[in-house]
């Protein structure tokens, strides 16, 4: 195991625990301020709009000044955004908190770049899969902590998330290694990747994230409408998804990519997401809902590390942070468009955001097949084009 990996992993896991605290309860929290389904979608969207601007800048900045200082800055921004969200007394303050939090949301792509810096190519899928498992840990512990904290009042979970982010930033400042050495750093400035493969992966990632964002933004409302779930009950279901994510990313993903091309593994994850969303749309009983959530957990558990592995493989080493930040920006665009659209669809028909999401994942699967994207950068037509520094 490369030196410093577990420190990076712990930093990401704690960061995503804070994310897991907030996401399951944000919709019902916003309803206290009179937010409709569409407004809840906008609340998710402004976070992603800020992330769209911030992620490539943070990624490029990490290529320039190093990974460690950028991760610390991002964590402190997350803390400020969480405290503001918790202190909100009006809807506009809630939006302000989410914007600050979103602008700081590039820490994950910077951490992915740091792992890619220290991982030999043959170990990269396994280590990125383990890093992806931190996302699952966030969805296991975050909702559990958020659900318990919500018993103390609706504002408390956000304060807990802010305290965690602050402590995480201090720990990162003390313990996190720098993986980007001075000789490898380049001048700041953001560029769109010239690699056709990277642009295609960004589009496919946009479609799958758009679909999952529809689920994230509206599921608390869906659970309340169809299953009479409270905020704590919704958090428990997100915890269940997180458990599936951890199992897939920590124990299953790297075994899959040892046996078959990572792009084929990615395709399987996308198809599992499509099936899970379709099952959610039709879920009126608990067994069907549980099957749907298992499929969603499997899909996310495979798709996230697979696409990160593909981007890291095709990105020039000197622009790895920028390339992963660009991919993160594609996700941010999806999270800008997806939640408001999903909220508007939900206001008209409870099942419709999930049907639309399933169709989006099927389109992404078709593009993967048509473009024949491979994890092997040595194959003809798949070599990364040179990029000017």
Précis, in short:
The protein has 389 residues and is mainly alpha-helical. Helix content is 79%, strand content 0%.
What would you say this structure looks like, in words?
By secondary structure, this protein is mainly α. The protein has one domain (5-176, 194-371): MFS general substrate transporter like domains (Growth Hormone, Chain: A). The protein is 79% helix and 0% strand. The chain has helices spanning 5-31, 37-65, 67-87, 91-103, 107-118, 124-150, 156-175, 196-227, 231-259, 262-282, 286-314, 320-348, 352-371. Helix 5 (107-118) runs antiparallel to helix 12 (320-348). The radius of gyration is 19 Å and the shape is globular. The relative contact order is 0.17. Residues 377-389 have low confidence and may be disordered.
Q: Strand-residue fraction?
A: under 5%
CATH architecture verdict: Up-down Bundle
* Rounded average pLDDT: 82
Which residues form runs of ≥5 with pLDDT under 50? 377-389
Question: How is the CATH topology named?
Answer: Growth Hormone, Chain: A
Can you tag this structure with a few keywords?
disordered C terminus, Growth Hormone, Chain: A, mainly alpha, globular, 389 residues, single chain
Strand-helix topology:
Blueprint: H1 5-31, H2 37-65, H3 67-87, H4 91-103, H5 107-118, H6 124-150, H7 156-175, H8 196-227, H9 231-259, H10 262-282, H11 286-314, H12 320-348, H13 352-371
Helix pairs in contact: 1-2, 1-5, 1-6, 1-7, 1-8, 1-9, 2-3, 2-4, 2-5, 2-12, 3-4, 3-5, 3-7, 5-12, 6-7, 6-9, 6-11, 8-10, 8-11, 8-12, 8-13, 9-11, 10-11, 10-13
């Amino acid at each position: 195991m490369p030196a410093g990996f577990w420190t990076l992993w712990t930093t990401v896991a704690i960061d995503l625990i804070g994310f897991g605290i907030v996401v399951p309860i944000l919709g019902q929290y916003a309803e206290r301020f009179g937010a409709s389904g569409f407004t809840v979608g906008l609340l998710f969207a402004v976070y992603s709009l800020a992330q769209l601007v911030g992620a490539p800048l943070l990624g490029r900045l990490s290529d320039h000044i190093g990974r460690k200082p950028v991760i610390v800055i991002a964590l402190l921004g997350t803390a400020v955004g969480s405290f503001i969200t918790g202190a909100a007394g009006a809807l506009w303050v809630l939006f302000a908190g989410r914007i600050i939090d979103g602008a700081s949301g590039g820490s994950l792509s910077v951490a992915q770049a740091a792992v890619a810096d220290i991982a030999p190519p043959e170990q990269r899928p396994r280590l990125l899969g383990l890093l992806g498992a931190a996302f699952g840990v966030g969805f296991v512990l975050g909702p559990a902590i958020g659900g318990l904290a919500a018993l103390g009042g609706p504002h408390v979970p956000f304060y807990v998330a802010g305290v965690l982010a602050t402590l995480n930033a201090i720990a990162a400042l003390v313990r996190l290694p720098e993986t980007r050495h001075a000789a490898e750093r380049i001048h700041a400035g953001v560029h769109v990747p010239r690699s056709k493969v990277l642009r295609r992966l960004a589009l496919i990632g946009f479609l799958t994230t758009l679909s999952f964002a529809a689920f994230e933004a509206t599921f608390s409302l869906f659970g309340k409408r169809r299953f009479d779930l409270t905020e704590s009950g919704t958090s428990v279901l997100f915890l269940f998804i997180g458990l599936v994510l951890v199992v897939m990313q920590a124990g299953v993903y790297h075994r899959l990519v040892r046996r078959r091309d990572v792009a084929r593994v990615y395709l399987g994850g996308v198809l599992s997401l499509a099936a899970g969303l379709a099952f959610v749309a039709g879920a009126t009983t608990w067994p069907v809902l549980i099957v749907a959530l298992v499929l969603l957990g499997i899909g996310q558990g495979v798709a996230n590390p697979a696409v990160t592995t593909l981007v890291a493989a095709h990105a020039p080493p000197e622009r790895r942070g920028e390339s992963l930040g660009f991919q993160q920006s594609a996700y941010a665009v999806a999270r800008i468009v997806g939640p408001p659209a999903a909220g508007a669809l939900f206001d008209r028909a409870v099942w419709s955001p999930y049907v639309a999401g399933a169709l989006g994942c099927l389109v992404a699967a078709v593009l993967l097949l048509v473009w024949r994207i491979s994890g092997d950068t040595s194959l003809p037509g798949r070599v990364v084009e040179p990029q000017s520094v």
